[in-house]
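To: structure subgroup
Subject: Chain for Friday's discussion

All,

I'm putting the inputs and outputs inline so they're searchable in the archive.
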Amino acid sequence: MKILMIGDVVGSPGRKIFKREIPRLKNQGGIDAVIVNAENCAAGSGITAALAKEFLDAGADAITLGDHTWGQKEFAGQIGSVERLVRPANFPADCPGRGWCIVTLPTFRFAVVNLQGRVFMNSVDCPFKAADRVLAEIPKDVSVFVDFHAEATSEKITLGHYLDGRVTALVGTHTHVQTSDAFILPKGTAYLTDLGMTGPYISSIGRDLKPVTKKFLTGMPSRFDVAEGPSVLEGAVIEFDPATRKASSIEILRIRET
């Protein structure tokens, strides 16, 4: 089986390329399921129930989030109604929503887990201990795919090795920059430090260059709107055996508009 995991979708340009390319990839590319990080899909920050439905209707089988989960204030009251969507499992226990889910397809089922890092990010519970807790709750015969939304590469790499052999794949999101270190860890877990970004690439990680450049030059606060122009869709395809729950390959994917 092959699962495609897609990096952070940024604004309407990211949604547009996702909705165009995912049906084609599923029909022609032998992709059995798609997991997408969509925490930046609503004008660059957050998501809404309506946008989540757009992703699911376009071919996403599960949606993950991150530190911008509550970027759209109405979403806290909506998150419980959206199936196959998870926010970081190491958010405080009183937060609405769920940290993992099981997706059941006609031919197989798999679990999706979302975690958030603590290094250089807002304070959350320990992702290592949260992973232990969640894996104890998930049935042992289910392949597990983890989206670790984190800033520090060292934290991502360490959690990858910590969960090696216990999950089918652990991939990072959040930096919006695709890394070149995709490989299979010693005990059979597919790993990639960051999936990259799905959105406008003539930009500063999806945002318009002018206000971002001004902020770096002056230190003055500025509104960072989503950039316009051609987009890129980035992620990774993980091939695995549902019987053993081990990955056999992981290959990065990049589709760039011109």
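Points worth raising on Friday:
The mean pLDDT is 96.
The chain is about 25% helix and 30% strand.

D.
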